[in-house]
Amino acid sequence: QVQLVESGGGLVQAGGSLRLSCAASARTFTTYNMGWFRQALGKEREFVAAISWNGGSTYYSRSVKGRFTISRGNAKNTVYLQMNSLNPEDTAVYYCATVRGATLEIPFGSWGQGTQVTVSS
Q: Cα 95–98–103 angle (5° rounding)?
């Protein structure tokens, strides 16, 4: 099972940028499709973005497409989420996860502790 540790969150003004990182423990990291999810206060956790095991395919939710970019560094067992043009609606705890499904939106395995992103208006 993959252990995941998210980092890079913080407080940013609307229009700003942040880059999140997710470090994975497994030696077999390169065989996993990876995704980012977020959960705002009082709301359910939702899919944000995903990337295939070799980086060849990426998927995004409608709300972040064109603003967020997911990437991975297999040599470092890390997946990234570059977030640009942030707005207050992006405020949430962000989690990474191993994912499956046709568009890699189904998480499985354990969650990390998440990283808080707060966007001020």
A: 100
- Give 44-82 pLDDT, tens digit per residue: 999 999 999 999 999 999 999 999 999 999 888 999 999
What is the C-alpha to C-alpha distance for residues 6 and 24, in angstroms, rounded to an integer? 9
* DSSP assignment string, 27-89: TTGGG--EEEEEE-TTS--EEEEEE-TTS--EEE-TTTBTTEEEEEEGGGTEEEEEE-S--GG
Report how far apart, in Å, the C-alpha atoms of 17 and of each of 2, 68, 118 are: 28, 9, 11
Stretch (H or E) spanning 8? none
